[in-house]
Amino acid sequence: MNLFKFLLTCILFSHVGTEIQILINPVNLPENMLPGIELSRAYDKDVAGKPDAYHFLSEAKDFVIDASSGVITSTKTFNYETDPTRFLFIVDTGGTTRSVLTVNIIDVPEPPDCTADPLFSSGTATMEIGEDTPLFQSIYNVIATDEDIANGDKLTYMIETQLSGPKRGAKCFGIDPINGVVSLRGEDPLDFDAGYHTFQLALRATDTAGLFCQGTLIIKIKNVNDEKPQFEQFPLNSLNVTENKPIGEIIARLKATDRDEDSSIIYSFKTQEERFGLDPFTGIITLLQSLELDNQNNSRSYSLEVEARDDGNNTGTYMFTIFVEKVDYPISCDSSFSTGAGASVSVPENIPAFAVIYMILSRDPDPEQEVEQFQLVVAVRNRHDLSLESCIGTVTVNIQNVNDESPVFTYIPHEPINIYENLPVGTKLVKLMATDRDIDDAVHYEFIGTQKEFSINEDSGEVTIAYPLDYEDVATPKSWVLYVRVYDDERVHSTTGTLTVILEDINDNAPRCSQDIYVFELPENIPVETLLVSLTCTDKDRTVPNNNVTYHLIKDTFSNKTFTLINNELKIGPTHLDYDNIIFAGMQFKHILFIKVSDEGIPILSTTITIIIRVTQINELNPKGTMPEFTLDIYEDRPVDALVGKVTFTDADWPLNNIKYAIVGGNFGTPPKFYIEPYTGVIKLLDSLDREAESQYKIAVQVTDLDNDALPDPIRQRRATAQVTIHVLNVNDEPPVCNPPHMEMQIFSTVKGPFIHLNCSDRDSPQEHLSYSIIGGNTNNQFTLWRQGVDPPFLATRKNFQYDLFQGIQDPMTFQLLVEVTDELGGDKVRQLSATVTVIVHVLPWTTVLPTSSTQTTTTTITTAVLKKFSYYWRPDNWLPAVLTLMGVLFGLCLYAVAWCLFKHSPTYSRLFPQCHSQKSPPSFTATEPTEVPSDWNGIHFQSHRGKKRRWFHWNTF
């Protein structure tokens, strides 16, 4: 367009002289340059040096030219996108020499603009989200504009910096480089309890030239109770308690912590326990029953499983073992022997050697322990009559040890010991116990053979884990039979026992899949039951149910019936994809699905697969009309551009109802009778109508959808055709026409009845809507109209033309009849039109004798047409003007009374109210003679006593 204007300008001024020289032409001016830039200079040797040598042909408010020097400068900053080219017409002083200066505005790359959200550009834009916000859900949309986009420039969005606090280093957020949508991308998990409370993102929009704008987004993370309580474990997950622990005593205190803030914890046993009590709030474990090992019903160890539950109903469990230790009680003897003076025994003097004098009854309450030393206190008395002599001494009998006893296991589990994998190295499995009845002979323990997985303490007999045990490691056995030897100090005697250890699998491996994220691009018409992906996920755990993998599809409400997950296969259905939905448009036309892959172990471990499905639009639906055919009505007298009606079609393809209308058939004529607005479907009148020429039009309207497919139009455009019938409604704009408009004929005076047939018609009224009447020339009502049915009437005579009883007229007579024909159009009198037909009837006497008297024949003037115009107006009843007049008089009197009350004391208005002030010298008048007063004069005339002056007093009637 600019090139066309430039060529046209050059043609217009091609005949003008070219003495004005432009030093730089054309001028290339970069956009956004400051005003005042010198662009070029005009020079004409004929006017050089004159004070007013140069000026623009027309006003150019954006440029100025120095009148004397011809220097041309700019006065504004130009924008290429809105004003790419300017033409300046320069003339000299005479106005006969002209030149054209072309100023081309050069496009300069401009940085994007991020001020659409002033909070973002100022660095104060703040969002708040929960730490459980789903991945890829839109959190914020950066809106940047660039004037260069119209020239093919594109914007790319990126995160310049991402700072987390108070803990640093998290990379949780990402931004879509195309649309600027900020969302969680999962590089690092969003965890408030890990210290990620606030994120500060510096977001940047960069164009293809590298120019950018940026802003700051602050994202605050809301804490969600999503953490399980964690127990502080006991050493080796076990406790040692003596068997003589009193009932009610505290055994231990459990402590669990919850990373969620302000969360309280409740403790409970997983199974009912009768021997131990647990305070639900403090975690204190107390003893409820005796642990005496002498009681065969009591065990040496108890396994307890405790559950901790927080406010969010998250639970954590902890299992530990309580080992009961034996207590070495002292030896007890008979009370008669061990208390007081001891036992006193009398024996005769001749008691034989080796005779049993007294048996000391002692016992060790500890099972399997024997008394190893006896100490006797012996008193010898000489019983005499005169004196009692005695001596007392102590005899100690020591039993000397002989290494003749083999060590004996006092505790070695006969049942297999089940241990879990991944227990820490050094974890205690069991403490073997053995004894050697020989005095001061210690026992020692060792494995028979080499065992890299376990170790045994030589002195204490504790068996511990010596090597990490992984159930999934094929090189690790799943069970062991450990041969344990216990021997004495000199390795003289030994005993061998077996210990069976079984390794149990724990759920320590979450399922793993071949891919963590899938991205598909699917057309919306993809068939239902189409397989999208078959997931391949495995669990490294080796036992059931830890390696049983289940799949659960997490989808939003909109995607609820669009996708189905059966086992590991994701399919379309039961409903098909639908691109054409306003809710889906708000989702950027993509489904984001999450499939949670879980095992069935305890605790349940899972991994999440993200599936992004971008749906592409398919033009699959034809435009559909609101009715099969459209029927419109319009009056024939409507002006050009009048509204005829509207054709309404809908298109369910996105963008919804984006259609274009065009008349493709039936609209004949030059110019055509109708035109249709392409984007509204409104049909308007383009040329005048005449129902009498054409009462109905049938036109074909083609409806074409626009931009409803991923492929550009018109590859998959769809069309529909609507038949539109336009009825032209009659308007009474055609008056009746009689053919011929006037008639003349002769009849004899003896004719009685119809003698002439009127031929009248109306182009827009049928015959039954026409009425006929004789409105002139019907002297003595001699003629009448005789009508049968709806056809035009006959003109007939009522009687013959006889003026006496036996004789008719003597002379010829002429009648000029004026017959009015009026249409009615269904009784609409406002639009009635009429026409007249003139009928001249020459009545001839019926006689063979010429008339005796001669009568001069009068020339007849024929009235050919009468124009009748109806004027409709409102005519009130006779009493209404009288009432209105009376009301006007009363209103005037009221106004006068109000004015009199307001100004009666004001001398200024005395001439308006003369009766309000007394006269100092009132003149006297003598009524001497009355004077004739016109009937329309409301006054009295007096003549003064001098007879020279007359005064008229006039009273206005209000």
Alpha-carbon distance between the two ends = 75 Å
Contiguous runs where pLDDT drops below 50 for at least 5 residues: 1-18, 848-858, 916-958
| Major sheet summary line | 4 strands, antiparallel
When the domains are counted, the total is 8
Query: How is the CATH topology of the largest domain named?
Result: Immunoglobulin-like
CATH superfamily membership of the largest domain, which one? Cadherins
CATH architecture of the largest domain, by name, is Sandwich
| Strand arrangement across the biggest beta sheet | 1-3-6-5
Question: Could you characterize what this model shows?
Answer:
With 958 residues, the protein is mostly beta strands. It folds into 8 domains: 2-106, Immunoglobulin-like (Sandwich); 118-222, Sandwich (Immunoglobulin-like); 230-325, Immunoglobulin-like; 334-363 and 370-398, no CATH class; 408-504, Cadherins (Immunoglobulin-like), CATH 2.60.40.60; 512-616, Sandwich (Immunoglobulin-like), CATH 2.60.40.60; 624-729, Cadherins (Immunoglobulin-like, Sandwich), CATH 2.60.40; 737-844, Cadherins (Immunoglobulin-like). Helices cover 5% and strands 38% of the residues. It contains 5 helices and 66 strands. The longest helix has 25 residues, at 879-903.
Q: Which helices and strands appear, and what pairs or packs with what?
A:
Blueprint lengths: L1 H11 L8 E2 L4 E4 L7 E6 L10 E3 L6 E3 L5 E4 L10 E8 L5 E9 L11 H5 L2 E6 L9 E2 L13 E12 L6 E3 L5 E4 L11 E12 L4 E11 L7 E2 L6 E5 L7 E4 L2 E2 L8 E4 L6 E3 L5 E4 L13 E9 L5 E11 L6 E2 L1 H4 L23 E2 L9 E11 L4 E11 L9 E4 L5 E4 L7 E4 L1 E3 L8 E4 L6 E3 L5 E4 L13 E9 L6 E11 L7 E2 L3 E7 L7 E4 L2 E2 L11 E5 L8 E4 L2 E4 L9 H5 L3 E9 L7 E11 L7 E2 L3 E7 L7 E4 L2 E2 L8 E7 L8 E3 L5 E4 L10 E10 L13 E11 L7 E2 L3 E7 L4 E5 L2 E2 L8 E7 L6 E4 L7 E4 L15 E11 L10 E11 L34 H25 L35 E5 L6 E5 L4
